[in-house]
């Protein structure tokens, strides 16, 4: 299935293999994808470019995922954030109370094709 052209996506993920897997699915849907592996790199990318969707792993190795979410909300308020995690933290849905730009909360093991469809949906909106 083809995606919407012009959807700019930032993947913030410490696991390079997982980020690459997600990126490949998104690029096949004609999304423009950047990858950041640290919170500092993610904030730099948000400063440099506009994104429609940010896929943000809450389990970043440097522990700065919530800082990235705050930064995105302040400097890229139109971007929708899809949070992913392999833990049960925020599984009660409270993430949506803390971040106005949160649009989804998914397990890291979500099928990459399903994640790509969600990114395309929120990015085209």
From TrEMBL:
Keyword terms of this UniProt record: Phosphoprotein
Entries under SUPFAM superfamilies matching the protein: CheY-like
PROSITE patterns to which the protein is assigned, alphabetical: RESPONSE_REGULATORY
Domain of life assignment: Bacteria
This protein's record includes keyword Phosphoprotein: yes
GO BP: any one term: phosphorelay signal transduction system
Stated name of the protein: Response regulator
UniProt organism field: Thetidibacter halocola
């Amino acid at each position: 299935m083809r995606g919407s052209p012009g959807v700019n996506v930032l993947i913030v993920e410490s696991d390079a293999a997982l980020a690459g897997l997600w990126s490949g699915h998104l690029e096949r849907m004609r999304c423009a994808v950047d990858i950041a592996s640290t919170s500092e790199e993610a904030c730099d990318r948000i400063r440099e470019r506009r994104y429609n969707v940010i896929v943000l792993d809450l389990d970043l190795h440097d522990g700065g995922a919530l800082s990235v979410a705050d930064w995105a909300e302040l400097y890229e308020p139109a971007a929708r954030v899809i949070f992913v995690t392999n833990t049960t933290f925020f599984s009660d849905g409270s993430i949506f109370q803390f971040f106005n730009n949160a649009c989804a909360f998914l397990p890291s093991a979500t099928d990459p094709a399903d994640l790509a469809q969600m990114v395309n949906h929120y990015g085209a909106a």
